[in-house]
Amino acid sequence: MTISPPATLVERWKLAWSIAMAAGGLVLLAGGAESLVRGASRLAILLGVSPLVVGLTIVAFGTSAPELVVSVQSAWEDQVDVATGNVIGSNIVNICLILGLSAVVCPIPCNPSFVKREVPLMIAVTLLAPALGVAGWWTGHPATDQAPMTLPRWSCIVLLGSLAAYTLLRYFRSGESPGVLEEVEEIVGKPPAPSAREYAVEVGLVAMGLVGLVFGARFFLDGALDLAGRLNIHPLVISLTLVALGTSLPELATSIVAAVRNHSDISVGNVVGSNVFNILAVLGGASAVRSLPMQPDVVFRDYPIALGLSLLCLPIMITGRRVSRLEGAGLIAAYAAYAGLLAFMSR
Fold first, then answer.
1. pTM for the full model?
2. Residue 237 near residue 92, CB atoms below 8 Å
3. Which of 175, 203, 237, 190 shows the shortest CA–CA distance to 2?
């Protein structure tokens, strides 16, 4: 496969329109996620939900809402390569670019007990999807010659059930965790005073967020897939790069701001939590819509890279008890090498 640039003026205008659609959809996705998280968090606090629960659910899940909406919508439209590629690509982006850029901006201290507890969980969750894929193949769910393993629809029960268990585990382990409370404070600000006007404002923000996410996903997907077709790029490659990068922007913004403000618990926890959420919630939600065949490139190239990077987090975070600027630069270089590998293999 070679990237074919547009030859005529009309084709260039069409290419520009595809880019504009993708960019506009991305703005709607980011704005929708921000509006949904802010409105839902403040509304929950107004209704008496503790900030800890808000931080572990609405805030933690809200930054990954773009990945969830894009992957579920892709699965609904039978774009399974985009649904799976978005998840794996986002996990690679989270570790290489988000953690890497945050560390380059400001070295990130790592709590050893957090690392020893949460990173092995992230690794175990990363191993869960291929295990379910093998089980899907073994039990006779549709796996073709082109797809060596398939996430069957019943895997959504395992994935979403594991997500509920993971959230409860974090809740009972966290207590009044300063990192979680700071994260809620960053987004919600001063707790709102209960009033009819305040309730209406927060419900309006939630509604705006949902509309932004749905329409943003539609425009972003249409633009990205049209762009892939016009440049003769396989949808899987687009989903592993452009789509994954775009849907990870909320995590990028949250982690960099947290690193600058020296909120290391948020910066590291955001990356680890997002990777867990992507596997359990995003793949779980997409597999509830339909079985997800996983292509050979995903199984033998992209997923091992995502798993290897997850394993690499342990020595990086434990040695020196921080992610240094040099290690951050190394992670960014690793992503550049991965992008180069995709470009080379797509020729």
1. 0.84
2. no
3. 237
Closest CA to 313 of 84, 91, 159: 91
The answer to whether 293 touches 168, Cβ cutoff 8 Å, is no
- Report the range of poorest mean pLDDT among 120-129, 164-173, 331-340: 164-173
Q: Output the CA torsion sign for 185, 190, 191, 197.
A: negative
Q: In this predicted structure, what is the pLDDT of residue 145?
A: 47
Residue 11 has pLDDT above 80, yes or no: no
**CATH T-level assignment (fold) for domain 9-345:** A middle domain of Talin 1 (1.20.1420)
Helix (H) or strand (E) run with residue 30 in it: helix 9-46
Four-residue CA torsion sign, 151, 155, 158, 162:
positive
Cα 328 to Cα 102: distance, rounded to the nearest angstrom = 7
Domain boundaries, given as residue ranges, for the chain: 9-345
Q: What's the pLDDT at 307?
A: 94
In which residue are the tokens 């913004």 written? 253
Nearest 5°: phi and psi at 63? -70, -20
User: What is the predicted pLDDT for the residue at 91?
Assistant: 94
As a whole number of angstroms, the distance between CA 161 and CA 224 comes to 32
